[in-house]
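Help needed: design a sequence for this.
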């Protein structure tokens, strides 16, 4: 069975290469059809919010406190059967607060399935608390396991873990702070990255909020528990998505500056056309990166076992959503925001000031000559451009910043 999974991984990787090549030969009118993508995003967000409203958030032990009892059993059972068995536990000191059943293909156990039965087992996960909503004592947890073993048949205790209410509260607060801090720092980074223009950061953060809602909503729709690994996946997707957006924004900045280098003040830059061209120029990179990541995550999901499956599932949803939002949402939103402002060259983040800095002509024409007494740091074309000095007779050239929007 593992060879089948490996074969699928190889086929998937080959498909990534073939799929990415198709985007080099076509041009897509992403900006012209942005209304369609707004509708798609609205539908996805509505489904996610509806799931959160109807199903709620299935918080894991990390955020609720209590005791988790995991047991493996070869006899197939259902959630209702487990709940019925737990209801027979005669104790007012123990309350069942959650049930989950996972199906696996192997279990660390000397016990083998009977001949003729499928080589599968079920992992039963019980979340129980005492009468005060706190974790159970070890003796109480052992009593619960022995009772379930008597009711459902022979099983093996895989894990017992407890977290108190104080720790769970701290974990919840820290998780919320981590997500909000990540969103805020991304906004600050993009603000400075694109010449102190907050509009780029706002467009990226709208896409990030879109991804966060979809991840949490679809996790709720799948009935999976939100725990610390999910928060780690969420933060990973935040970083992945914003860097995907930055790649496109960088190309937009370069193309805007190139247009101004060529046309100057001849007229208003065709901003929508520039943004659409930038998306198409970076689409092959974005699609290839996303599909390659998905192939790797599918391998983790398939081979990683139940411990990593939920984490891989969260990343799968987040990476797909992040790739979609960075291409089809962030850039169209940037166009909508910038439609109210004149388009000017975008200054990349630099250190120090180079305004009105005169550079000797011979230094610029022949880089092999000895450096002048005043060293000058060279910049990319996308940064401050070189223009002829028409106001002085120094015979040099002056570095000047493009106007900022």
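Sure. Designed sequence:
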């Amino acid at each position: 069975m593992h060879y089948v999974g490996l074969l699928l991984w190889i086929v998937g990787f080959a498909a990534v290469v073939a799929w990415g090549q198709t985007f080099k030969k076509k041009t897509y009118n992403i900006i012209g059809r942005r209304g369609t993508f707004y509708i798609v995003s609205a539908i996805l967000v509505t489904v996610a919010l509806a799931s959160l409203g109807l199903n709620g958030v299935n918080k894991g032990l990390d955020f609720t406190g209590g005791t988790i009892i995991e047991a493996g059993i070869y006899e197939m059972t259902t959630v209702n059967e487990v709940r019925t068995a737990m209801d027979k536990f005669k104790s007012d000191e123990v309350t069942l607060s959650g049930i989950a059943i996972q199906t696996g293909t192997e279990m660390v156990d000397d016990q083998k399935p009977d001949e003729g039965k499928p080589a599968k087992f079920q992992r039963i996960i019980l979340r129980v608390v005492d009468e005060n909503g706190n974790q159970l004592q070890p003796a109480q947890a052992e009593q619960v396991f022995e009772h379930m073993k008597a009711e459902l048949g022979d099983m093996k205790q895989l894990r017992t873990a407890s977290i108190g209410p104080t720790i769970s509260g701290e974990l919840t607060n820290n998780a919320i702070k981590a997500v909000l801090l990540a969103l805020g720092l991304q906004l600050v980074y993009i603000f400075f990255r694109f010449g102190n223009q907050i509009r780029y950061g706002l467009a990226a953060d709208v896409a990030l909020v879109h991804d966060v809602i979809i991840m949490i909503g679809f996790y709720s729709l799948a009935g999976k528990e939100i725990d610390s690994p999910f928060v780690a996946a969420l933060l990973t997707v935040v970083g992945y998505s914003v860097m995907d957006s930055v790649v496109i924004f960088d190309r937009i900045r370069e193309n805007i500056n190139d247009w101004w280098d060529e046309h100057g003040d001849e007229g208003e830059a065709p901003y929508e056309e520039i943004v659409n061209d930038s998306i198409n120029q970076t689409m092959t990179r974005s699609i290839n990166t996303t599909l390659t990541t998905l192939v790797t995550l599918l391998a983790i999901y398939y081979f990683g076992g139940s411990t990593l499956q939920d984490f891989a599932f969260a990343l799968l949803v987040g990476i797909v959503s992040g790739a979609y939002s960075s291409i089809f949402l962030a850039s169209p939103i940037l166009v909508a925001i910038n439609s109210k402002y004149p388009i000017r060259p975008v200054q990349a983040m630099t250190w120090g000031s180079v305004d009105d800095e005169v550079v000797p002509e011979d230094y610029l024409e022949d880089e092999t000559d000895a450096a002048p007494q005043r060293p000058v740091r060279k910049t990319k074309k996308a940064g401050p451009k070189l223009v002829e000095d028409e106001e002085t007779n120094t015979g040099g050239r002056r570095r000047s910043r493009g106007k900022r929007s």
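The two ends are 58 Å apart (CA to CA).
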